[in-house]
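So, could you explain the following?
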Amino acid sequence: MSLVLLLAAGVYASNRLLTHWLLVKGLEQTYTAWADTVYDTLQPREVKDTAVLPQTLDGLRMTLTSDGRSNAYHEQVATLQNSVESGDAAPGVLHFSILPSAMETRDGPQSAAWAAPEWEEKNLFLAPQTMADAKVAALSSPRVLAIPDMNAAGQFGKNALIVYPAKDANSRSLIALVSTATIMKSLSPLLFSVSAAIGGLCLISFLFAGILLWMRFREQLQTSKNIQYLAHHDTLTGLPNRAVFNARLSEALRFAQAKASNIGVMIIDVDKFKEINDTHGHGIGDVFLQIIADRLKSVFSGHLVARLSGDEFAVMLTSVSDTGRMTRLAADMISATDPPCNIDGREIKISLSIGLARATDGSWRSSRLLHCADLALYRAKHEGRSTFCWYTPDLDAEAQKRKEIEHGLVKALKFDQLKLKYQPQYALSDGSLKGYEALIRWEHPTKGMMRPDSFIPIAEDTGLIEEIGNWVLEQACREAARWSDSNRRVAINMSPAQFAAGDIQKRVARALQTSGLAPQRLEIEITESLLISNTDAVVHTLRQIRDMGVSIAMDDFGTGYSSLSYLSLFPFDKIKIDKAFIQNLGKDASTDAIVTSIVGLGRSLNVTITAEGVETEDQAILLRAAGCDLIQGYLYGKPDDIQVHEAVQADMTEKIRSARTSWGKRSASPQSELPICSAREPQDDVEPAKPDNGSSAKFPAGSPLKAAVAVSGS
């Protein structure tokens, strides 16, 4: 609006200024022709006359003062009056006044009588300043001057003043009151055309400016909309973000409290999304998230679906908030993940974990409801993923326990509460002690010695596993370097989180250099889960570590779906048979076949085979018969200090040698049968199961180990 007013004022001002200029030029051009007559008439002819007061001519009637009138003055007035009446003067002259010369006023202000002529007193001007300007011009202007009657608002009066200034000190000057009607009428077409042109240009300028402003405003509006959208939506999936979800949830809870209704929330997390990102790239990962968002919107149409973070989504259920219908929706969502997605020819399986929670009264807050759903999600992930779980009050206790363990681990690292225990690895061929596996324990100030399965999963979830793993690496190298037998090897487990952090090869090199441990005495154990994500980078890192002289072992071999494929990617120095196979050894023909195959594979690849979890002599004899190289388990020592194992090392060696001889004799007898003990989960504070020599269980039919034992004893 201000721009419109400014443009209108500009057009009006331009019109007034142009009119003033044209009017001045027109009046001066018209009345300059009368100047010769005026100046001839006003030329003084009586030099001896005394000062003469100015006289005034009102219309065509001359009024003279009663004192001091000269004949010369009367003659000038009469001459000019005759010129006006005869038409010699320019048309439109209404009145005129003769002003005394400078010589006539030198002896005093006799011109005071002129100060208020009759026609001036009639208030014929819109602008009072018009007459004053004429008086000044009569004394100082070098030429005939036209002074239009225009006020401050730009309005023109009907009259104007024409000033004929005195040429010298002896000459009189004249001011004529003229009508501007004729000139204004002649100027009207020109003024209209010029004003129309100016108005048109201003209108065009206004339209152009309006278009520019509209475009700018449109861009600002669009930018504002984009900013507003980005502030409330996820750019990748187009779903509302966490801020919108929290605000809508808080609002829904307030309405639910007023209406005594229920609100349900689901927290949905993409299982192993980081592995998908690392394996297929971030571009594929982004498309994968978009596909998941589309499926979520399809299943939960009509409900608020939001993306809370990288791979975490949330759903708010208001119209469907009873447990039965929420359970069905969660099951439908899990079913919707069955069809895999195909991205750039790559088929990727979708797996989601869902946590459900429901606000059942008005005391619930959005933060509390989301926290409960998050606890349920945590349980769903630890129950095998690709499932859903409801929040139950006992989850709060579990969460509190995890929080205590997390805080306790921070203190354990700070106050040196973590300890290393070692489990020996013996050679089946001669019973010699080859080395130890370093196993971490937490010496809790109130709970005593804690096993790793009670705190390592929490350390992995919280990110503390990297710091703990680095401590294990450095501590194991330092302690192994101080062992009396420099041939003993030390094996440590490394978490995928340590590789994800990068520069693990530098940490290994630093640990070896700081401790002084020979690289050949260090063995790094990894699981195949490490190789699933970013396989090429991991293999490259493993090769760098192996080039230092450090051995690389694959732990828990056989438990994954692609163990054999990873053996072709990297030349491992050792394969460790998982204890799950060892526990069923001699009881199940399939397990016997698997163990025999793994041992045979190791021999073909010239790789050392270690069996872990050995608890009975039967298992040890069967493994020796199959050709296994090393054994590790509670039968020959549970995790303990090095001094304890070194003290009984000779006894254990003799035990292995004597068992080899005795079992060789028994297996040579056709009537002998191997007693098999029932397998169980080992515990730190429970002695391993002893073989029942009175039992007479037989090998499963077709077991390859039965033949292996017979061959070994013959």
Notes: Residues 181-232 form the longest helix (52 residues). The CA atoms of residues 230 and 241 lie 9 Å apart. Residues 2-191 form one domain.
